[in-house]
Design a protein that fits this description.
Blueprint: H1 2-11, H2 13-27, H3 30-33, H4 39-51, H5 54-63, H6 66-70, H7 77-108, H8 115-143, H9 148-169, H10 171-174, H11 182-209
């Protein structure tokens, strides 16, 4: 399992370094921007920055014929797919940690900040990242990686649409269609975390029936 997870990161090594550099640069952006309303979006972007590498890793594996070699290993399909999802989770955690560093930078700079809005940034970034990956991977596994950028873009758009639907459904409770309401973010995050294991099960099923 460790080798499979490590291979995923080797496949996206160059792009992953770029994501770390961009996320690190955003950590210090509050020192320049000094606008508390922008910080939640910065955190959301930091979380999502790492997920965009998944398509690159999957495409690199296909070009290197790793998928065919992987099937010859004495491993269960669930283990092979599980390694992908663990790698996805690690990437999302890296984004969350980058967001945490941004919050620390805001605090150390002595700026005023809104805890609920910062929480919304985490919730939005987490929902966007997890839902995008959960939708993207089964589709790419089914159709191939030739259009991985398009699939990722459509998956991210679907994630945004889902949050809008949740906000609309909760409008009688929240008083209006409020994307930044704590209840909207909470339910969106719960939906994302629920989709992740479902996506894993769907991917295992697709992998078992796919001809490489």
């Amino acid at each position: 399992m460790k080798g499979l997870i490590r291979n995923n990161f080797y496949s996206m090594e160059s792009n992953l370094k770029l994501s770390f550099l961009m996320a690190a640069a955003l950590v210090f952006s509050p020192l320049i921007i000094n606008n508390a309303s922008i910080y939640p979006m910065i955190i959301a972007v930091q979380v999502f920055l790492f997920v965009v590498n998944t398509g690159t890793a999957l495409h690199a594996d296909e070009v290197a014929k790793w998928d065919k070699f992987e099937r010859t290993l004495p491993l269960k399909r669930s283990t092979m797919i599980g390694a992908k999802y663990i790698a996805f989770a690690i990437l999302i955690f890296c984004g969350l940690f980058a967001g945490f560093c941004t919050v620390i930078c805001v605090i150390l700079s002595g700026q005023t900040w809104n805890g609920l809005s910062i929480l919304w940034g985490y919730e939005y970034g987490l929902g966007l990242s997890v839902i995008s990956v959960s939708l993207m991977y089964p589709v790419i596994l089914k159709i191939g990686t030739e259009k991985n950028e398009l699939v990722l873009l459509l998956s991210a758009f679907a994630a945004v649409c889902l949050m809008c639907l949740i906000a609309a459904a909760l409008s009688p409770v929240t008083g209006e269609m409020n994307l930044q309401h704590p209840l909207t973010g909470m339910i969106n995050s719960f939906a994302a975390l629920l989709m992740f294991p479902i996506s894993f099960l769907v991917s295992v099923s697709i992998h078992k029936n796919k001809e490489f």
